[in-house]
Amino acid sequence: MERKLTIQFGVVKRMKKEFDYYQTEVSEREKKRVDMINKELNIEDDVDEHKYHIKKHNELLKETYDIFLISKNKYTTEVDTLENIYNEVKKCDLNIEGNLLVDVNTFIDEYYKFM
What we know:
Layout: H1 2-38, H2 47-92, H3 98-114
């Protein structure tokens, strides 16, 4: 059971890293989108080309946001699995390394603070 908990904890940490990456990516792309929209064009700038770039950036932002939602759902699912394993371990009162249980418990608590 300790091995199962350790593996699932590793999976959840990886999923958190992926979730954080896409969350950052979405916010950076949204900021860039706002900057592109608010950019003052010079006389020599091509308005149609600028609109085209904004349109393409919006498509990219939508794809990134969709991937972000997928990673969020996977992250939530994996945390639920980790929590179930953790509760099973606590219920059965298995002899598992104390640091692992503390780390998992802390991680789950942090998850619920921010989600």
